[in-house]
Amino acid sequence: MRWAYVVFWLLLPSWTPAAELLGIRAGGHWGFSRLVFDFNRRVLYSVVPEEGKVRLSFLGAEYRGARNRK
């Protein structure tokens, strides 16, 4: 029966609707810059450096904008 409990909790995130990206804000500060991603609820994220760039990934989030824009 314990396996059913584990499977339930593993599948639970797939039943919840994706968090919606409401907006992106940017600001320049003394010595650093800041990006703020506004979602309609809290999301998990990861930051991975890639050849002079940074890749941001948001778990359980939805964005319908353009990809790979330069």
Would you summarize the structure shown here?
By secondary structure, the chain is an alpha+beta fold.
Secondary-structure map with pairings?
Layout: H1 2-15, E1 19-29, E2 32-39, E3 44-50, E4 53-59, E5 61-62
Parallel strand pairs: 1-5
Antiparallel strand pairs: 1-2, 3-4
What can you tell me about this protein's structure?
With 70 residues, the chain is α+β, with helices and mostly antiparallel strands. It has one domain (17-70). The longest helix is centred in the N-terminal third of the chain and has 14 residues, at 2-15. Strands 2-1-5 form a three-stranded mixed sheet, with no helix packed on it. The protein has one helix at 2-15; strands spanning 19-29, 32-39, 44-50, 53-59, 61-62. The mean pLDDT is 78. It is elongated. The chain has one helix and five strands; from the N terminus they run H-E-E-E-E-E. Strand 1 and strand 2 (32-39) form a beta hairpin.
Low-confidence stretches: none
Average pLDDT taken over every residue: 78
- Element string (H = helix, E = strand): HEEEEE
* Total count of strands: 5
Binned, the helix content reads 10-25%
Radius of gyration: 16 Å
Principal-axes shape call: elongated
- Count of domains: 1
Keywords:
1 helix; 20% helix; alpha+beta; two-stranded antiparallel sheet
